[in-house]
Amino acid sequence: MVDKLTKKNNYLYQLTIIGVLFAVFGFVTWVNGILIPFLKKSCELTDQQAFYVTTAFFAAYFFLAIPSSWILSKLGTKKGMSVGLLIMASGCLVFVSAAGDRSYGIFLTGLFIVGMGLALLQTAANPYVSLLGPIESAAKRISIMGICNKLAGILANILLGSILLKNATKIQNKLDTETDLNVKSELLDELASRVETPYIVLAIFLVIIAVIIYKSSLQDIKEQASSDGSGETYLSKGKTNIFQFPHVILGAIAIFFYVGAEVMAGDLITIYGKNLGFSDDTSKFFAVFGLIGLLVGYVTNIILIPKYVKQENWLIISTILGIFLTIGSYFTTGSLAVGCLATLGFANAVMWPAIFPLGIRDIGQFSNIGSALLIMGIAGGALIPPFYGWLYKEGNVFGFDFKTAFVFVMLICYLYILWFGKRGHKVGFPKL
Fold first, then answer.
1. Does domain 2-217+244-424 fall into CATH 1.20.210.10?
2. Residue pLDDT, tens place only, 384-396
3. How far is the C-alpha of 426 from the C-alpha of 406, rounded, in Å?
4. Fewer Cβ neighbours under 10 Å: the N or C end of the chain?
């Protein structure tokens, strides 16, 4: 009885620490939805240039995921997580320098550094929570982590939106009518300086969390991967490298399209709302609606998986819903169109929780490197939004408007995810 209680307490302790990390992920990642319109104003950017916020941030996952698996194998899970948090803190401090010079390039550098730290943390945390219990209920555990993530994301949007985009419409009107270049420059400098205090506070917070993680008794992922210490499973026995598991590669591609779709529906909802005619002061909180949709979706996942529905079946149902909502956003306008985008949050809620465990299922001792490959798929957030911006750029040969381009890109993403949920995750497994 005592052993059972100790085991349960240890499980809850580990889950709580990982939950805090997922909250950090959410706060830092979802603030991009505010940074895009903020930097567009303060650095005087076009829509497509502003979308490079997501490129700089998510590209780090592609370049740092594999090195992250090596770092984790050398340092271990706990020390690796602490290092990741310190890297993120240094990236936040770069924002202070960027604000002083109002330099878009330095802002993007700071975002890339923050993404580097997140790549290391995500490579450690996602397989950890997947392997903390039965793989069949992994989507349920990751959904709990998702709630921590999105609550922090909502907080980030409300706090940073209120600070960075305060009186945004009034400032934009002044900028549009001001003819004195010195006065205009002063307005832009004042706007850019708003980022300094929040990111200094965030850097201090990340350092504190890094120290807490370092002093914790969190176990390494290797200790979680197998019960007999060998790390082998029936599928991984005799395998020599990760590329012998096709479902991992296909899962990484599914993550690529999922993250692209989530960024399109979440981070770009503010720009989308602006293109529909909403003011800055109204559209700056649209990302919160999408986060609420995600939260409702996570709660639904926790209730349904695996008691009432398998995670792969719920993935298929949710993807079909995403397809219908995407088409609905095209045929509607105003608040209804924004509502379709926000509801995509609900459809997207099961995608990461289901794709990730399906992607690393039964790979045993290859869990770290397999996780790294899946994390590389997050680069979809770096490439898909700028591609969307390019599709409806004026003078483009395709002649798409912003709504047609949105539907085109989202349907590509969802159709692949639908195939992965139906067949892709089974590729390479023996037929029973």
1. no
2. 988 888 887 765 6
3. 30
4. C
